[in-house]
Design a protein that fits this description.
The chain is flat. The chain has about 230 residues and is mainly alpha-helical. Strand 2 and strand 3 form a beta hairpin. It contains twelve helices and three strands; from the N terminus they run αααααααααααβββα. Helix 2 packs antiparallel against helix 8 and helix 6 crosses helix 8. The two termini are about 30 Å apart. It is found in: Cytoplasm. Its EC number is 3.1.26.3. Belongs to the ribonuclease III family. It is an enzyme of class 3 (hydrolase).
Length: about 230
């Protein structure tokens, strides 16, 4: 897809087209084709703009909450998982330019790569349109995540959540077993199950053992009726 489609889809017309082009340029692409600026410096700036926007919003909205409470809510909003969700909702992976090698090893689906791109896009908007426009873009696209964070409905670590839930019932044994893996070394997929007192309770898959175990724990939570589908 053409980056101009991103502008049209989001009602943004960049005065400096190079900014948004750079925001969608991964370092692997810049290194492969030379003469291209990658988005890592924009990521750095975008993170600061995002932090400021969410901090200011929470500070003004929740006058009764302490610094610690506000910090906890912000940490749920400004994190890799939340940024990845925003990237998916905006379809950013369709616009990212990366090297052939990065593409072949699953780079377009990588959580961190997409999350970083969101920060770069925020920085590009800030530099081209100013802070108020950037704030509006952030609050519009993070709205659902903000609401869930306020209600403490965001779970970043399903394995910890599962352990905390089961510990309330006393001594319980939780273990994760690798069932199988498949695919080439550069794109290996893992299949895992979680056992609770030796009973199969959930299954998960992912492109790392850690991801597969998290998804197995997430499945177990849904089986146990904890509302995580």
């Amino acid at each position: 897809m053409n980056i101009r489609d991103f502008e049209v889809g989001n009602g943004i017309v960049f005065e400096n087209k190079r900014l948004i082009d750079t925001a969608f340029t991964h370092s692997s692409y810049a290194h492969q084709y030379k003469n291209f600026e990658h988005n890592e410096r924009l990521e750095f700036l975008g993170d600061a703009v995002l932090q400021l926007t969410i901090t200011e919003y929470l500070y003004k909205k929740f006058k009764d909450k302490s610094e610690g409470e506000l910090t906890k809510i912000r940490s749920l909003i400004v994190c890799e998982n939340s940024l990845f969700q925003v990237a998916q909702s905006l379809g950013l992976s369709n616009f990212i330019k990366m090297s052939k090698g990065e593409e072949m090893t699953g780079g377009r689906e990588r959580t961190a790569l997409q999350a970083d791109c969101v920060e770069a896009v925020i920085a590009a908007i800030y530099l081209d349109k100013g802070i108020e426009f950037a704030k509006e873009f952030i609050l519009n696209n993070f709205n659902d995540i903000i609401e869930k964070a306020i209600k403490n409905e965001i779970v970043l670590d399903f394995k910890t959540k599962l352990q905390e839930l089961l510990q309330k019932q006393g001594e319980i044994d939780i273990s994760y077993d690798l069932i199988k893996f498949e695919g080439p070394p550069h794109r290996r997929k893992f299949f895992t199950k979680v056992l609770i007192n030796s009973e199969d309770m959930g299954y998960g898959e992912g492109y790392s053992k850690k991801e597969a175990e998290q998804n197995a724990a997430k499945h177990a939570l849904s089986v146990l009726g904890d509302g995580h589908e």
